[in-house]
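Homework-ish question, so no full write-ups if that breaks the rules, but can someone show me the predicted structure for this set?
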Amino acid sequence: MESGRVRFDPCHHHAAVGPMAGIVSPSMPVYVVENRAGGNRAYSTLNEGYGKVLRYGAYSPEVLERLRWMEDTLAPAIGRALELAGGVDMKVLIAQALQMGDEGHNRNRAGSALLGRLLAPHLVRTGLPTEQQSQAFRYLADNDLVALNPVMAACKATMDAAHGIPASTLVTTMARNGTEFGIRVSGLGDRWFVAPAETPRGLYFPGFTAADANPDVGDSAITETAGIGAFAMAAAPAIVTFVSGTARDALASTLEMYEITLAENPAFGIPALDFRGTPTGIDIRKVVRTGILPRINTGIAHRQPGVGQIGAGLVRPPSACFEQAVAAMAEALAR
Amino acid sequence: MESGRVRFDPCHHHAAVGPMAGIVSPSMPVYVVENRAGGNRAYSTLNEGYGKVLRYGAYSPEVLERLRWMEDTLAPAIGRALELAGGVDMKVLIAQALQMGDEGHNRNRAGSALLGRLLAPHLVRTGLPTEQQSQAFRYLADNDLVALNPVMAACKATMDAAHGIPASTLVTTMARNGTEFGIRVSGLGDRWFVAPAETPRGLYFPGFTAADANPDVGDSAITETAGIGAFAMAAAPAIVTFVSGTARDALASTLEMYEITLAENPAFGIPALDFRGTPTGIDIRKVVRTGILPRINTGIAHRQPGVGQIGAGLVRPPSACFEQAVAAMAEALAR
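A: Not a homework solution, just the prediction itself:
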């Protein structure tokens, strides 16, 4: 699968959708990622960082204050810098980050550092007062997840372009809402194939244990859907300190994913595999035939609202999603 | 070997030494790296980038113009930013860069990006006019070798602290002048053990071939002397595209160097080897006993003055340096 050429375009105020609408503001700034080959766009919010963050359920005054600063000060400056930069090529950025120990889902230190240095020459030209500029650069320096959100949007823009191909058994979305896990398949329209979500296994931040963990939640599995994240673990051996495991496990994770994917992405070469492309494009038939479920790197949310992220680890989707999808495809093709 | 705690301190104007004196200016700005454990300091110039650069022998008007801009505008701003930052901990920076695909000699993209983002919140507070700030950020964004020079100085500050230990067979310097290769040994005072330099083997920039190459030149082999560079190749599989080879070669390079070193540096863990420390501290006895010569990643200079860097590759020191040093040590101990 070729990852479409995507660009990281200026932030626009875009109507918020879903459960976040009304919590922060009636509209919020988002990254706009354009798939120039496909002509489609995807969006993401700005990343808040680790720990007590809204996207993991925290909503204390400090969380809201940070979001207001991001909305009022940071996002307009990043938006203007992106305009001055003429956008950022996310495909190139992801390719470089995969050569620098990122897998693009749980580890984005390299991508974030690269994004920051691409924006910096322009950020100083935005007219933002010096102290606020300094704060913006501190946000870019301190948050290793800065790149995660535009990377997710790039993956979304890539996979949306692959949706709707008749009879295609390619998975175009994997998403979880904390209770259920759902997938969509290119040739099966808007149907979701849904089953109860698993709980991730991994490492917990100090003071938390597996008993605190919520079942798998979030739409970040779009990274694995597009062939990075856990699928690119071989590129990111250092991540094992964050999600548990060994360097050999990291290699094995990627090698296993070649068994259930349709292609290798030549743009995303993995140095440790002599630049073999990341395993890309999950095929529901291969998943059901081999019994190998996709691997997903993910953060772990506390099961109580208000706490936030409490760890990070690994999870797999329920097999029922793929079995239902294969049955639905067989039925559709038999008509 | 423990790499001493080093900090990256403000630039000072420091008397130029060696052949550069008088070419650029009677004094030039340098990074000052302090080994806080050892109390000693080392210095390096600011990196000029790739290709036509003074340190590889180029001296055209554009080379000199860039150096003047670096001296007049860039260095004072970086110096002030470093003051505001309270210095940068180079040991932490190198450790992080080794987890991000750098080996610290020929590949410094991660270290450079990390250094840039550490400086950015302070650089905007230096009072530099906006356009010059933007140029400084462009220098930090475009030059993947920004971190090389302070990394070299950090290695120098580390190894100088290990020099002068009675009867120690540790190599504390490896340096080349384009004609000869010389080493110094901790327990053998100020003596240099010298033999003709080899010519590196590697990949050439477009338009150049091995026939254009000068024999091995430069003092950057201080990185290998301190246990990074080619000794940390296993951390940087992507570098094989720059110096030739495969990911397996990168692993093998590091594994071979454990045979001739005294220790493993726990601060510099290699992810692909499950965070085994880099092979550190070349022992002249082990080199002579095993016949394994240190590996060095290096740039290749054109043999004609004025051209500059024309490629990058691998080189080893002549074995005679180590044989002479072992003989000298035997003689010294027999007295």
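Now go work out the reasoning yourself. Hint: The longest strand of chain B covers residues 6-15.
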